[in-house]
Amino acid sequence: QEEKKQLTLKVEELERKLESTSAQNIEFLQVIAKREESIHQCQLRLEEKSHECSSLARQLEMAIEDAKRQVEQARERAVSRERAAQSKMLDLETQLSRNKTELNQLHRSKEDAERRYESRLQDLRDRLEQSESTNRSMQNYVQFLKASYDNVF
């Protein structure tokens, strides 16, 4: 009976550990969900910046066409308007360059986040596998103890 009591205590302890491991797994899944949401938000921002860059590129093309028409209309007015268009073009190119730089940074940030996510996910998978392996070992040990107990009595 004493052995049975000890075995029962061990089984209860193993069940508590299993519950604890399950709770940890749930926490890890919540962390993963948060990371996925963060990645999703980064992707949305990346798409917004891509659309903004496309819009700025179209604006730049429109400004260039406008400058060309003005040059054809009047040579005297074209000089001053060409300067204004070139200034605007320079601003747009600077803005486009900044946006491209920011887009590249977002790409790198997204890739870094994905690498960290994949690393963390693999770590969690490894831990889960280890936890499951430990759980199986404990279950096998409990089965062994049960079988031994049955053989004794």
From TrEMBL:
<feature type="compositionally biased region" description="Polar residues">
    <location>
        <begin position="94"/>
        <end position="106"/>
    </location>
</feature>
<dbReference type="InterPro" id="IPR026099">
    <property type="entry name" value="Odf2-rel"/>
</dbReference>
<keyword id="KW-0493">Microtubule</keyword>
<dbReference type="GO" id="GO:0005813">
    <property type="term" value="C:centrosome"/>
</dbReference>
<dbReference type="GO" id="GO:0000922">
    <property type="term" value="C:spindle pole"/>
</dbReference>
<keyword id="KW-0969">Cilium</keyword>
<dbReference type="GO" id="GO:0007283">
    <property type="term" value="P:spermatogenesis"/>
</dbReference>
<keyword id="KW-0175">Coiled coil</keyword>
<keyword id="KW-0221">Differentiation</keyword>
<dbReference type="GO" id="GO:0005814">
    <property type="term" value="C:centriole"/>
</dbReference>
<dbReference type="GO" id="GO:0005874">
    <property type="term" value="C:microtubule"/>
</dbReference>
<keyword id="KW-0966">Cell projection</keyword>
<keyword id="KW-0217">Developmental protein</keyword>
<protein>
    <recommendedName>
        <fullName>Outer dense fiber protein 2</fullName>
    </recommendedName>
</protein>
<dbReference type="GO" id="GO:0031514">
    <property type="term" value="C:motile cilium"/>
</dbReference>
<dbReference type="GO" id="GO:0030154">
    <property type="term" value="P:cell differentiation"/>
</dbReference>
<feature type="compositionally biased region" description="Basic and acidic residues">
    <location>
        <begin position="108"/>
        <end position="118"/>
    </location>
</feature>
<keyword id="KW-0282">Flagellum</keyword>
<keyword id="KW-0963">Cytoplasm</keyword>
<keyword id="KW-0744">Spermatogenesis</keyword>
<keyword id="KW-0206">Cytoskeleton</keyword>
<dbReference type="GO" id="GO:1902017">
    <property type="term" value="P:regulation of cilium assembly"/>
</dbReference>
<comment type="similarity">
    <text>Belongs to the ODF2 family.</text>
</comment>
<feature type="region of interest" description="Disordered">
    <location>
        <begin position="79"/>
        <end position="118"/>
    </location>
</feature>
